[in-house]
Amino acid sequence: MQRTLGRSGITISALGMGCWAIGGPFWEGDTPHGWGEVDDEESIRAIHAALDMGITFFDTANVYGAGHSERVLGRALSGRRSGVVIATKFNAVFDEDTRQVTGSDASPAGIRNACEASLHRLKTDVIDLYQFHDNGFPADRAEPVREVLEDLVHEGKIRAYGWSTDFPDRASVFAQGPHCTAIQVQLNVLDINPEIIALCEKANLAAINRGPLAMGLLTGKYGPASMAADDDVRGSKSPEWMKYFKQGKPNPEWMNKVDAVRAILTSDGRTVAQGAIAWLWAHSPKTVPIPGFRTVRQAEENTGAMAHGPLTAEQMREIDLLLGRNG
User: Fold this and answer.
1) CA dist 81 to 48, 153, 171, 301, Å?
2) Which domain does 156 fall in, by range?
3) Alpha carbon 307 to chain centroid distance?
4) What is the reported pLDDT for 56?
5) 163-195: buried (b, 16+ CB within 10 Å) or exposed (e) per residue?
6) What number is the average pLDDT over the span 191-219?
7) Confidence of residue 230 (pLDDT cuts 50, 70, 90)
8) Torsions phi, psi for 289 (to 5 deg)
9) Is-contact 75 126, C-beta < 8 A?
10) What three-state secondary structure class fits 222?
11) I need a labelling partner for 92 at 20 to 30 A (CA). Which of 65, 70, 101, 229 fits?
């Protein structure tokens, strides 16, 4: 299965691999932003397994693991860079040694410095998709950011750019740039954003789906008593925006929604995660899910969704009915 990365015309696998978790722990003060400890060698084996199963799109960010995710991905793709499309993000400022996020920088110099640092960590000459990593940055201040990205395209540092934002007014500012090709949006079967999807379809932008498995709720591996570790972004000290987990446990409100659609997602031999990915493919021709992973087994399960393809129109209607949505 393949999709086109928006206006860029770049062909990618219909599924991408989200590389947040493989960055390992990092913090902003006492607040964790990673997914706990990782084994870098297992991460690299998982990336290679995904490549072997036809995955060509990998999404990371400079801040994941305070640079560590980019370094691991760069190692894993050594000798295999050709034919792989790398997406990364910029905005956070951090200390690689302490793994602390110390601020943000969307100034022209800050963007350029971040780009050079990411190119170095990823061991590549060009970033295929460079994304602004500030969901709520004011729309009326975004045009200068977009223009720096246009300059980086013309200089050959990046091939295309996008914005990781859930707000249509912000996405619209970037959509006016000729080399904007994607909006990264929080989207899954439980948690939709029709305005962003409509914008992507109208403007011919890829809708890259972060949170496609609702931070793990759509893996089928968590029950009411499950508890995330303290160094996990879902743990007891999670950031304010973490809605799928509360006090380190799955949020019952969201778990009830999972239970409502579980039978449909697991029909036709799919796992819950594979069904959730299948929903995203059926939702729009622009969607590109990027589920996270830390192990070969997770990478294999996620990529296994491609053998099943999207849900049917009837299954999509049934899910909308069960979740109280209108079509």
Assistant:
1) 12, 19, 29, 23
2) 2-213+284-308
3) 21
4) 98
5) bbbbbbebbebbbebebbbbbbbbbbbbbbbee
6) 96
7) confident
8) -65, 145
9) no
10) coil
11) 229
Residue 295 lies in a domain: yes
In a domain, 244, yes or no: no
> Within 10 Å of residue 74's Cβ, how many Cβ atoms?
19
Domain membership flag for residue 241:
no
CATH of the domain at 109: 3.20.20.100
Q: Confidence class of residue 327 from pLDDT cuts 50, 70 and 90?
A: low
The pair of three-digit structure tokens given for residue 280, joined into one six-digit string = 């995203």
Task: Say if 34 falls within a structural domain.
Answer: yes
Q: Which two tokens stand for residue 250?
A: 């799955």
Do 64 and 72 contact (CB within 8 A), yes or no? no
Q: Which residue has the tokens 């350029």?
A: 112
Phi, psi dihedrals of residue 37, rounded to the nearest 5°: -65, 150
Contact 198, 172 (CB under 8 A): no
Q: Token digits for 17?
A: 């691999």
Identify the burial level of 136 via C-beta atoms within 10 angstroms of its C-beta, where 0-12 means exposed, 13-18 middle and 19 or more buried. exposed
**Structurally, how many domains does the chain consist of?**
1
| Tokens, residue 193 | 């954003």
Q: Which two tokens stand for residue 35?
A: 């997914």
CA distance 7 to 268: 34
Is this model's pTM higher than 0.90 or not?
Answer: yes
